[in-house]
Design brief:
six-stranded mixed sheet, FAD/NAD(P)-binding domain, D-Amino Acid Oxidase, Chain A, domain 2
Length: 394
């Protein structure tokens, strides 16, 4: 059993990387995060900002739905500074949506998600901008969160426990000791262009949609399919609550308020390369049409912008929306005989803390470090402290 504090490198400073840095640092690890951009500069910074209740997946992916509601409850408690507690509606627009209602209602109950069927009158009184032709409505505990604040809150908490963040360092390879074990990473300082080596007892690949590409540096395969989707933001906040269409997961099925804006999303398609994915005009048009179905006045409200986010869906025999939203943690020593490297990917923003906990459990097991997770017990540090810590270090 290890008696001296272990060290860990985490590649990637999105939600999962920042949450993992906090978890491992809290368990006594010397943690170093290496990120090629800034915090949340990949998928995490281009998400809806939806704190899922799990209701979106309760029929098609119960495992993901249960994970979401469990973590929804925890994040509401520990990340209050990042969340708007506005709730969500699932609304039916046509007979097909109504036909989905029984399966939906049974699904949320099976997954332990609080749900309340409300009258159309009540829904329209609460959200007057909603399509007046809706046929039914269900209320669930969805919420909106600020993506950057959530990442910074986890990172600030990690810093309070001694974690160090190295942003704008692009990992280009892994270091190995005399026995072939991975003992760190080689990176390029993107400001100076100079190579830098970082050493640690274990390295975790937490790069989301880029996890497969990073894993290739070690000669291993991670079955991640970068699955981008286009979202459109509008220059008006048209609802107070998150509005979901009452249907199986589909393009443009979620409209949510985000600060002074409304955001509709998302499409779904697969790519081989997660960098520089174009925002296709036909998909922007489709999102605009779907948004106007839920809230008709959006037809004439100016778009503030359209953007893309690449989901890290776990690959397999299925494709597109049929892929599970659950996350996977790979021990490459067990799977491919490569010691010193773990990969975590998949999941959703809502489940980032749980992903970090399971990954940290595996890392502790591998290194013989017996410390339990405590990240669900205490509020996260003020997100402002992440940059204050930076200034103090400078």
């Amino acid at each position: 059993m290890k008696t001296t504090p272990p060290s860990a490198i985490i590649i990637g400073a999105g939600f999962t990387g920042c949450a993992l840095a906090y978890d491992l640092a809290q368990r006594g690890f010397a943690v170093m995060v290496v990120e090629r951009g800034e915090l949340a500069s990949g998928t995490s910074g281009r998400t809806h900002g939806l704190l899922h209740s799990g209701a979106r997946y309760c029929v098609t992916d119960a495992e993901a739905a249960i994970e979401c509601i469990q973590e929804n409850i925890i994040l509401r408690r520990i990340a209050k500074q990042c969340i708007e507690y506005n709730g969500g509606y699932f609304v039916a627009l046509d007979d097909a949506d109504l036909g989905y209602a029984p399966a939906f209602f049974q699904g949320v109950q099976n997954c332990g998600i609080p749900v309340d069927e409300i009258s159309v009158k009540r829904a329209l009184e609460a959200e007057p901008a909603l399509n007046p032709k809706i046929l039914t409505a269900f209320q669930v505990p969805d919420a909106a969160f600020d993506p950057l604040r959530l990442a910074m809150a986890f990172a600030a908490s990690a810093r309070q426990h001694g974690a160090k963040f190295n942003t704008f360092f692009d990992v280009v390879g892994f270091l190995r000791d005399g026995q072939g074990k991975i003992c760190g990473v080689s990176a390029i300082n993107r400001h100076s262009g100079k190579p830098v080596d970082f050493h640690a007892d274990i390295t975790v690949n937490a790069t989301g949609a880029w996890a497969g590409k990073v894993a290739e540096f070690a000669g291993v395969t991670v079955p991640v399919r970068p699955t981008p989707g286009v979202m459109v933001a509008y220059e008006k906040r048209v609802t107070t609550r998150v509005i979901n269409r009452l249907c199986e997961p589909d393009d443009g099925d979620i409209l949510l308020p985000q600060r002074r804006m409304a955001v509709i999303g998302t499409t779904s398609f697969e790519v081989e390369e997660a960098d520089y994915i174009p925002v296709y005009p036909d998909q922007v048009k489709q999102m605009h049409q779907r948004a106007a179905l839920l809230v008709p006045e959006l037809e004439n409200i100016k778009m503030r912008g359209a953007y893309m986010s690449a989901r890290p869906l776990i690959g397999g025999m299925m494709s597109g929306r049929s892929l599970s939203r659950t996350f996977k943690c790979y021990d490459h020593q067990t799977d491919e005989g490569i010691n010193g490297l773990v990969t975590v990917t998949g999941g959703k923003a809502t489940t980032c803390r749980a992903m970090a906990e399971k990954t940290a459990d595996l890392v502790c097991q591998k290194l013989g470090w017996q410390r339990v997770c405590e990240t669900a017990q205490y509020p996260l540090a003020d997100y402002h402290l992440y940059y204050q810590a930076n200034e103090a270090a400078a």
